[in-house]
Amino acid sequence: MSGAAPLHTLSVGTAGPRIAFLHGLFGQGRNWSQIAKALAGPDGTGARSTVVDLPDHGRSPWSQEFSFEGYAASVADTLRGIDADASWVVVGHSLGGKTAMLLALQHPELVSRLVVVDIAPKSYGSLERFSGYIEEMQHLPLAELTNRGDAEARFEEPNPGVKAFLLQNLRRDGDSWRWQANLDLFAADAATGTDSVIAAWPESAAQLPPFTGPVLWIAGSESTYITDEDLPAMRALFPKVRQLTVKGATHWVHTDAPEIVVEALRLFIHPLTEPA
């Protein structure tokens, strides 16, 4: 995917360390806007953040087939296009966390520090936990929708937060509606069951040298995505990893506890803002 069109990004802040935020499956860069604005501060000089729409999401180009290597290459090209000489703090959640980990391993010169949010470098078996969401999205009769309220009424998801999260992918073009997320690609991957590439961890990562920069590994205490058994694999790839478990937070840690995540990120990037 390297050499493809740049990914869609939004910038927050005017000075300070460069930070890139990568979202999870069915997310968008703007999911990190609250955190990015808080880090920039009222005068915008606390950090220069870039929130990224990953391939197949938001306003970014779609790919023909999914690969973490392709995602990481697209992010690398996009960040270099923004600032060719910068070394970035890269923050990734879930799918974006796997992409961020591979980016750091493949392009260590591009990443000064890494923050991985509620995901581990392992296979999760399948996309079974997302299959219901994908089916709900596929069953929404786009041609019949009259407005967004109509879409919300027809969308059969009982959890209001999940419903709002998924429906952010619905976009109106004139009189028609479409999904911004590459739904067919994700559905095809989910249909492969335990052969899912999205749920897996790329085998190519094992052939790469460890990333020797500082790494912050954030987990939600109410999430099952990270277990104690994941630490050896994480430490093998990222020997300077430090763990932080946010009490009461689910998989969407930055949504459940934004103030804690902001403070943790401030402390983590503080050495980069120290005077020489």
Automatic annotation (TrEMBL):
Superkingdom of this entry's organism? Bacteria
Q: Which GO terms describe its molecular function?
A: hydrolase activity
Q: Which UniProt keywords apply?
A: Hydrolase
Record-annotated AB hydrolase-1 domain positions: 18-257
Name under which the protein is recorded: Alpha/beta fold hydrolase
- Organism of origin: Pedococcus bigeumensis
